[in-house]
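Q: What changes when manganese (II) ion is included in the input?
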Amino acid sequence: MTTLFISDLHLDPSRPAVTRAFLDLLSGEAISADALYILGDFFEVWIGDDDDTELNQTVIEALKVLTTKGTPVYIMHGNRDFLIGEQFCQQSGCQLIADPTVINLYGRNVLLLHGDSLCTDDTDYMAFRQQCRSQAWQNEFLSQGIEQRRQLAKQMRAESKTANSNKADDIMDVNQHEVLRMFTQHDVDLMIHGHTHRPAIHQHKDSHAKRVVLGDWHNSGWVVRFPTSGEFTLEEFSIS
Ligand code: MN
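A: The predicted holo structure follows.
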């Protein structure tokens, strides 16, 4: 049996092929998987569980079919969809997990994160992250109408794009000290995350520890397949 990990699908009506690839995964391989983990930025934007667009409904229904058939689906917040809440979970059958979370995977402890919390060199983003994860900020945002929230999200995205275009590349990658700190703090030798869109398997701590970075889904998709044997793989597949 196998556990599957994906992240950064950035589901959006403008990219139907990505949605189709995800629905194919749900109705195919995921059915016989032990579990499916979605490690954040599942949606390009999530302005609240009450935003029942056609895309959101389609995805929720497909997840419901899978979870009803018996495959557990765990979802973690990313920086685009941290407003996924209770109602989404009830409707889809998904279970929300904290960022970070340690799971025991066939006897091995594995740390799961979205990945943005590791990018500590990006101090402006870290400050924004702290602000928008506060209950006060979220209550204020969610108290507005859907159209207003959509506009605000658009505006925030545009500001973030402008800010990021002025940042050096390595500022938006993980900070190596923070990575080592997380290995130590959680006493693990394996972590899996996404966010940076730089898929790779990195060695840390004199090769004792591995950090698996999932890629984003665009012209291709990325999945970590973790079988009972523990011999996991990071694989790319094409999205047509
Ligand atoms: Mn992200």
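Observations recorded in class: The two ends are 28 Å apart (CA to CA).
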